[in-house]
Amino acid sequence: MFQRLTLSFLALAAFLSAGPVRAQSSKPAVSAEELAKAAQNPVQAMISVPFQLNTTFNYGLDSLEKRDTQYVLNIQPVVPFRLGADWNLITRTILPVVWQPVPFEGAPSISGIGNLQETAFLSPAKPGKVIWGAGPVVLIPTSSNHALGTSKWSAGPSVVVLTMPGHWVIGALVQNVWSFAGPQEAPSVNEFLLQYFVNYNLAKGWFLTSSPVNTADWTQSDSKDRWTVPVGLGAGRVFHIGKQAVSTSLHYYYNVVRPTGSVPSGPYTIRFQFQLMFPE
């Protein structure tokens, strides 16, 4: 399954990059560091298509004798829209493709798509030193199996704030969603997410990064099943494949806090990201 995910990821990346390459000039429009900062800014007014593969090892309950590896490929296109001279609307879509081993005792391994997440950030077109965006986030129950995502429609607010002094890009994204529609028998949703990001950009497009995704499931009555708190680091580089601008990065995260009761988890994750960028 891992090989199929990887081949699908590469094929889709090649397909998406084939057309726009011809439309770009033979020289980069901006420097490598400027491209890196644009890729690291969640509300940058630039079309981009990140592919993010998260590989979580030893996935499953601590009580299980057999634990395996979970693969989640997030396809995350970002498309901006201008709303007059003063505002931008930045849309961000996340579609997860999942291969999940035995989530609980006696269950089979499962593969398919998870729930689609759609976020729309309203952001100033001419920001100051502090850059921000705010808007709604909606979770759409598109999962191909109930074990890969809730059957409930969910929504809530999402806010991102960042600053870019010198070589740094520092900020955080915060959101919480609550279920509002769907089958009555399906569990309710009340999920919190905090992703802080710290990036330092080096020469020739290289950068150091840390952007762990901290989550909390407020519906869990037992606190040991509520929080996932990873820490870790990564490194990457912005460069060109022919005329196509891309950003790649590799990260390692260890969950210092993770569910250990009824909710499956894994102690550490390796994240690889390949991002196509289409600057104006």
Question: How would the blueprint of this fold be written?
Answer:
Blueprint: H1 2-23, H2 32-40, E1 47-59, E2 68-75, E3 78-83, E4 87-100, E5 110-113, E6 116-124, E7 130-140, E8 153-163, E9 168-181, E10 190-201, E11 206-210, E12 213-217, E13 227-241, E14 244-257, E15 268-278
Antiparallel strand pairs: 1-2, 1-15, 2-4, 3-4, 4-5, 4-6, 6-7, 7-8, 8-9, 9-10, 10-11, 10-12, 11-13, 12-13, 13-14, 14-15
What would the average pLDDT be, to the nearest integer? 87
Strand tally is 15
Backbone CA Rg: 19 Å
Percentage of residues assigned to helices: 10-25%
Q: What is the CATH topology assignment?
A: Porin
Helix count, per DSSP? 2
Describe what you observe in this structure:
The chain is mostly beta strands. The chain has a single domain, classed as Porin. It is 11% helix and 54% strand. It has a 15-stranded antiparallel sheet that branches. The longest helix has 22 residues, at 2-23.
Pick out its properties.
280 residues; mainly beta; Porin; 15-stranded antiparallel beta sheet; 2 helices; globular; disordered N terminus
